[in-house]
Design a protein that fits this description.
Elements: E1 2-6, E2 10-15, E3 18-23, H1 29-39, E4 45-62, E5 67-89, E6 92-102, E7 108-128, E8 136-139, E9 144-147
Antiparallel strand pairs: 1-2, 2-3, 3-7, 4-5, 4-7, 5-6, 6-7, 8-9
Bound molecules: fe (iii) ion.
Amino acid sequence: METVKHTARYSFSRQGGNYILSIGNHEEIISALGQFCEDEDIQAAEISGLGAVSEATLRFLDPATKQYVDKHFEEQMEISNLCGNVSRKDGKVYLHVHLSLGRRDYSLVGGHALCATINGACELFVRVLEGQHPQRIFDPQTGLNLYDFPKI
Ligand code: FE
């Protein structure tokens, strides 16, 4: 059975563990997506989507320094692809999202998504991975928050 919900920041249609999610215009995607995952108590999911943004901050992890280098883009861009996953770190929703953004001249920029503001639409599919509760833990060797699967 299909469930439909409207909130101030997003709307969705859900059937089982499959969501069709539309985030509201001018919302910041990562924050709204985090709110959606908290509201729906999502533990693990796969995210894919598209849309358009007026600005975005992308990150590149320099493996030599283990530091993120951030770059802000302030222009209208198509979300050629948004892909990501949902897990938990210290019990809280942890989003890992990457963006490929198409510019006016049809070139692409891309990277790890720190934040991005919708200007137009943002349409996502969120597929919940039932029964999975992946946690993350900081790995000092890579500087990344990696999946921490229990050793059975
Ligand atoms: Fe990343």
